[in-house]
Amino acid sequence: MIRPATPADVPVIHALIRELAEYEKAPQEARASEEQLREALFGERPAAFAHIAEDDTTGEPVGFALWFLNFSTWRGVHGIYLEDLYVRPSVRGGGHGRALLTELARICVSRGYERLEWSVLNWNRPAIGFYESLGARPQDEWTVYRLTDDALAKLGRTAG
User: Fold this and answer.
1) Average pLDDT of each block of 10 consecutive residues along the chain (160 residues)?
2) What's the pTM?
3) What is d(CA 148, CA 155) in angstroms, rounded to the nearest whole number?
4) DSSP E strands, 32-72
5) What residues are annotated to the active site?
């Protein structure tokens, strides 16, 4: 079962993010606190949204998708950027990841959004195979760039 996250889900979302960071071999990068997640997802001006995948038998949360809106200047409409998709290893292959992506695709279609996009680590062959089995295609002509930490602070301090 897939359902929108509620404020009561923040601790489990936080735990799943930590698990994802371990899986991606970067636990030190997952620094968000539960309070930051609560504010981002459920504050006065939510910046992101989340869906929870539950085990059909136990109702236990086994995965999540965290996403936000983006905008295509070429198409003139919003899309969804999937920041994180994670399903616990013990239940992978049970359809939870597909169900989460199906729900996000349904949201796109129902709201007139024309893109559902995400990034995947180049070494994560199981995820790449899964995404391609759904019809997703890599955008090989684009390279993601990111400013963080000292480089971001330095540029942000630069006078116009």
Assistant:
1) 98 98 95 98 97 95 98 96 96 95 97 95 92 92 87 83
2) 0.92
3) 10
4) 49-54, 61-72
5) 131
